[in-house]
Amino acid sequence: MALIVQKYGGTSVASVERIKHVAERVAKFKMLGHQVVVVLSAMSGETNRLIALAKEVQSEPDPRELDALISTGEQVTVALMAMALKDLGLKARSYTGAQVRILTDNAHTKARIVSIEEQNMRQDLESGRVVVVAGFQGVDEQGNITTLGRGGSDTTGVALAAALNADECQIYTDVDGVYTTDPRIVPNARRLDTITFEEMLEMASLGSKVLQIRAVEFAGKYKVKLRVLSSFQDEGEGTLITFEEEPNTMEQAIISGIAFNRDEAKITILGVPDTPGVAYQILGPVAEANIDVDMIIQNTGADNTTDFTFTVNRNEYPRTMQLLTSLQAKLGAKEIKGDKHIAKLSIVGVGMRSHVGIASTMFKTLAQENINIQMISTSEIKISVVIDEKYLELAVRILHDVFELEKPR
Amino acid sequence: MALIVQKYGGTSVASVERIKHVAERVAKFKMLGHQVVVVLSAMSGETNRLIALAKEVQSEPDPRELDALISTGEQVTVALMAMALKDLGLKARSYTGAQVRILTDNAHTKARIVSIEEQNMRQDLESGRVVVVAGFQGVDEQGNITTLGRGGSDTTGVALAAALNADECQIYTDVDGVYTTDPRIVPNARRLDTITFEEMLEMASLGSKVLQIRAVEFAGKYKVKLRVLSSFQDEGEGTLITFEEEPNTMEQAIISGIAFNRDEAKITILGVPDTPGVAYQILGPVAEANIDVDMIIQNTGADNTTDFTFTVNRNEYPRTMQLLTSLQAKLGAKEIKGDKHIAKLSIVGVGMRSHVGIASTMFKTLAQENINIQMISTSEIKISVVIDEKYLELAVRILHDVFELEKPR
Lengths: 409, 409
Description:
The structure is a homodimer. The first copy, chain A, is an alpha/beta fold. Chain A has a domain at about 5-175: 3-Layer(aba) Sandwich (Carbamate kinase). Chain A has 13 helices and 20 strands. Chain A has helices spanning about 15-30, 45-55, 65-70, 70-85, 95-100, 120-125, 150-165, 195-205, 215-220, 280-290, 315-330, 360-370, 390-400; strands at about 5-10, 35-40, 90-95, 100-105, 115, 130-135, 135-140, 145, 170-175, 195, 225-230, 240, 255-260, 265-275, 295-300, 305-315, 335-340, 340-350, 375-380, 380-390. In chain A, strands 3-6-2-1-9-11-12-10 form an 8-stranded mixed β-sheet, sandwiched between helices. Chain A has a 4-stranded antiparallel β-sheet with strand order 13-18-20-19, with helices on both faces. A 4-stranded antiparallel β-sheet of chain A has the order 15-16-14-17, covered by helices on one side. In chain A, a hairpin with a 5-residue loop joins strand 7 and strand 8 (about 145).
C-alpha cells in the first residue's frame, strides 16, 4: 500500500465527463489498496474567464481580490470531484487551500507556500477517504486567500506529497511524459522513461511546458518522487524524474532532449563605454521595471567600448526598447538594436558533464546548415543558442538526428 | 453618520455593468459619510448553473460538497464588487462567510447562523473601508463551508446588521418595495411606505417573495430596521418594516395587503374513523417523508367519521397522494381525493385586530362573484382562503377594490 498524490490539470477536469473519468482512475488506485490525495486545477478556460471578468471591472485588478476571485475555479472542481468519487461509492472529502491550511506568504497572485497542516488529511486517508485538494491556492496568516501563480497546482501537488511524505507524486497532463523534443516538430521524438531532476529543470524552464519549474525545484528540495503521466491514456508509465547525484554513465545518454522557445526577444546596446558598473546601469532600470531578463552576454568592442546583449519575454519587448531608448544618452551608447524574431534552442543532458565535444558537434551541425548563432550560453548540463526564428524547426530536427535521440538509451 | 448594511440580490449583480452600478450607489452612501457593509448574492443564474453541474456528477449531490461548490457564486461577486469599488477610488475588502467567520451549525444546504465575529469588519469600517460580504454562506466549527439555503443572503444581511448594531439594513431587490398586492394583477396596487413586521411575515410566507421569511424573523428578533428598496431605481424610499407593538390605529389601515400563491395542492381524506390520534396517523407519515404541510382542516362528518384536508407544495403532490393511497386501508378511509388546481389568497393587516367584520366582508364579496371557498384559515392578522385557481385573479382584484387598498392610508 502506498500513499500517492495525483495532480490533474485543467484539461483533465474540463467537463463533467472528464471529471468522472478521473474519478474512475482514482478508484482503480484505491482498489489496489493505495491511499490517494487528488490535487486539481480549475476547469480549463475557467481561470482565464475569471481574469477577463476581473479586468472588465478593474483594468488592473486588485491582487487580493483577484486571488479571492480566481481561487473559486479550483473550489468548483474539487467539490465536483468529491461528488464524482462518492457517486462511485468511495469516501471522499474536498478541501480548499484555506481548509487544508496551506499557509503561504502574502504575495498575492504569486504566493509561496510556508507550511502545510497535514493532520486532517492524514486522518481522512487513514479512515479510507480520498482527499481532494484545490491546487494553486493557499491562505496567509491573516486569512486572506492567496494563489501561487500560473501552474501553481503542480507546486501544490509536490508540496502535499512532501508534507505527507508520499511515495509518489503523479502529475497528469495532456502528454504522456517528457519527450526528447516536441513531437510536433520531430515526429520520431522519443518519450523518456526517466529524466534527472536537473535536466527536467532545464527542460521546464526552456519551454517544454510539462511541469512548472517551481514544482520541480520543490520536488528536488524535498526529494519527492515525481512522475509525469497522461490523463488521457489508461496505460503507460510516463516519465519518472530521478534525483540520483551520480547517474550510471554506462547507461546514461549524453543528451536527454532538445528544448526550445519562441517567447523571447533580443536587445543589443552597442558601444557603451567599458567602465565598471555598466551592466548594472543597463539592467538595474530593467529590473526595477519588473522585466525579467533571461540570457545576458557582454562582449568587449572597439575603442574601450563594450556591446551588451540580453533577451526578455517577447511581451516585454516594446516596453524594454522604450525604456532603454530613454536611457541611451545617459548610458552613452552608440546604438540600441532589437530583434523579436529569434528563438532559443538548448540541448540538455547530465551526460554532457562527462563528455567533451558536445558543443562543437552542435555548432558544426548548425554551421553546416548555414544557421547563424547569435548568442551562446552554457551551463554544466546544457548548451543554449539563440538563432533566427525561421531556422528553429530545421535546427531542432537536425540536432535530434545528429544526437540520435530517437534511439532508446 | 450611520452604519448601513446593504444587501443586493442576484439580478442586481447579474453583469459587470450592474456590479459597477451597485458600486456607484455604494459610493454615494460613502460620500454622505456613512459606513457601508455590502452583502451580495451570486450572479443570477449562477447558483442554478452550479447545482445543475453537481447533479450531472451525482444525482443527489453530497450536501457538504454542494455547499463548497455553490458558495463560490458569492465569492465571485464579492471579489468583483471590491474591485469595482476600488476602481471608483474607494477602499474596500471582500470577505467570504468563512473569512468573516459567520459561524453556523453543520446542517449543510440549510445551516443556521450561530454567531458572527465582527471585529475585523468593524476595524475595516473604522479605517474607511467598504466591507463586502458573501451572503448565503458560513462555516461550521470544523471549518466546513455551509450555506443557509435559498434566499439566505437576506438572512446574512440582517444577521450582519444585528451583529454590527447597524442603523438600517437595506434589502435591494428588483421591486421598489412591498405592494398591497401584485401589481401585475392589480395595476393600481400601491407601494406601502411602512408595513409591520408581523404583516411582512404573513406577506412573505404567503408568496409575496420580496424578502426571505427567515430574514424577517431574524430582523424581528434583533429589532433590525429593515427596508426594501429597488436596485434599479435611484430614487424612492422603499418600504420600511416596523416593529411597533401598538400601531396608531387612527392612521393604521385595516388591511395592508393581499397575498396569494398558486404553489399548493389540496388533499382530502374522507370518512376516517373519528378516533383520537387520527391527525397524527395521517400527518405523521407525511412529515416523516419530509413533506411540508401548510393549511390543515378537520371536520366531523357523518357516522362517527371525520374528513381531513390539508395542503402541500404542488411539487410534492404526486408523492403525497401516493403515500396516502398506500395508507388508505390502514387509515380505514373511505376515499382520498386531491386537487392541484387551487390557489390560496390571504388578506393581511394588523388593523384587523381591532376591527370586526373583515372576514364577513371578504366572504360576502367572494360569494357575490360566485367564487366558492374551499378552505378557510385565520390568524389574528390574516384570513386565508383556498379557492379554485381559475378565480384567483378575479378574487384579488375585487378584494383589493372592496378594501380600497389603492388609497393612501
